[in-house]
Amino acid sequence: MVSSTVALLLCGCHVQTSFYTTAEPEKKVARHHKKEKKHGKQVAGPIQREEKPTVHLTLTDALGKPVRLEPDQPHVAVVYLADRQAKDELEELATQIDQRLVAEPIEQVVIIDLHNIPGVMRHSANAHMKKAAERSLAKRRERREAHHVDASEDTVKLWHLVADYDQRATQAFGVDPSDHAQVFVVDKHGHVSGPYQQADRAVDAVHRAEQRQLARARRHKSSETAKR
Questions:
Q1: N or C: which end of the chain has fewer CB within 10 A?
Q2: Lowest mean pLDDT among 58-67, 78-87, 154-163
Q3: Candidates 3.40.350.10, 3.30.160.390, 3.40.30.10, 1.10.10.10; correct CATH number of 3-24+50-227?
Q4: Where would I find the beta strands (DSSP E) of the chain?
Q5: What is the pLDDT of residues 187-209, one digit of tens each?
Q6: 107, 142, 114: which is closest to 128 by C-alpha?
Q7: All structural domains of the chain with their residue ranges
Q8: pLDDT tens-digit map of 153-166
Q9: pTM across the whole model
Q10: Is residue 50 classed exposed, middle or buried when 0-12, 13-18 and 19+ CB atoms within 10 A define those classes?
């Protein structure tokens, strides 16, 4: 599904993006016990839970479609971050993950770091990138039809190719994609987990995000029922 897209990326093809991004810094609170003396005894305070970082990112893909990675986004998303040198890694990871999640309504966003591409090359490259995205979507549809799962237009187009010319998107996730392809999972509340460099771990993270969403939905339903 992604091979033709990545091949074009390595030839310097890219797509014009227009987005504004802010990312909350990762907030990691170590688990610890606060101890204070009370009536001569040591009393343990509450354990503070680790908070997941949240991303706020709005992108435009190669076909001019908006992509939202933020709280209240419509789908769990798998985000791939790489530069042109990580071609083989990106292809392998994306193919493995898409095959494993072929029947699930998740969004997949491929973000390529192209900050070192000269601006004069962008006009012609944009046309190539658009064609590459269209071919990848056609292959995505064929794969879903072959597996006899939802191959509707809405589901097929839950895949996006985005160029990151100024590195704001890659910096929003706090990684340098020049070393290896990185995979993140963003749940429907914009909470980020990762990075992952193994397909199994990324797929497990998607399933955990979906389970959390189901648990929230059940709690909300129970709460609404109790109010009646």
A1: C
A2: 78-87
A3: 3.40.30.10
A4: 21-23, 35-38, 41-44, 55-60, 66-69, 77-83, 107-113, 159-164, 182-186, 192-196
A5: 999 999 999 989 999 999 999 99
A6: 114
A7: 3-24+50-227
A8: 999 999 999 888 88
A9: 0.74
A10: exposed
